[in-house]
Amino acid sequence: MRTRPEPQPEPLPPLRRLGVHASDYAWAVSSIWEGARRPHPPERFRHGGLAPVVLVPGVLESWTMMRLIAERLNRAGHPVHVLPELRLNTAPLAEGAALVEEHLRAGDLRDAVIVAHSKGGLIAKLVLLGEEQERVARVIAIATPFAGSELARWMPTRTLRSLHPSDPSIRDLVARTEADARIVSIHPPFDPHIPGGSRLAGAENVPTAESGHFRILGSPEVLDAVEQLAGHDPVTGS
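The structure assignment produced for this chain is given below.
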């Protein structure tokens, strides 16, 4: 078993949960505002001698929600690829995966690391199951609803409701376990958007101390983990 032993977190009291909700959305709004001010990736993201990194953000997100991760990985020596063609990632999972696969082919990327948030992790898993899987060394997924989210039932759009556990695309992904060993799932103890959590059996699971769905993208703990894992071989452990 490759999964790290981890203690079961104590349930957060209601007031603390409300606090996580508030700070999580405040972080997201601040990140969206900053992304609107600086929507284009810097030229330096193209350069680096380490494994190429492909960013796949969550639903209704642009790459800028993951800017701090991109900056950290690029400073470490990874070229960082963003996919403007994903727009706000509202297309079905299969369409999103096709866009990522096309980017991998077009750039002839090899031994790539996909770093994904939320719905982006589902797209990344589909890539690991698809025709371009050999181009990907591993997936690092942060707060990804691998088994869907019960809250999706109440969402106002089909795009969000498709993340419910009963959706055929989610059920199919749950059943396809052959790629799970190539995934690292970074998961918080409490995620306001994923009541069931984002731990993935068969993957390398990395728990965080901080709760949240968005704000953990800027957590020093998560930034450190992603930088370390981007150079980690999922087979040899080196």
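Interim note for the steering committee: The beta strands are 53-56, 80-81, 112-117, 136-142, 183-187, 204-207. The longest strand covers residues 136-142.
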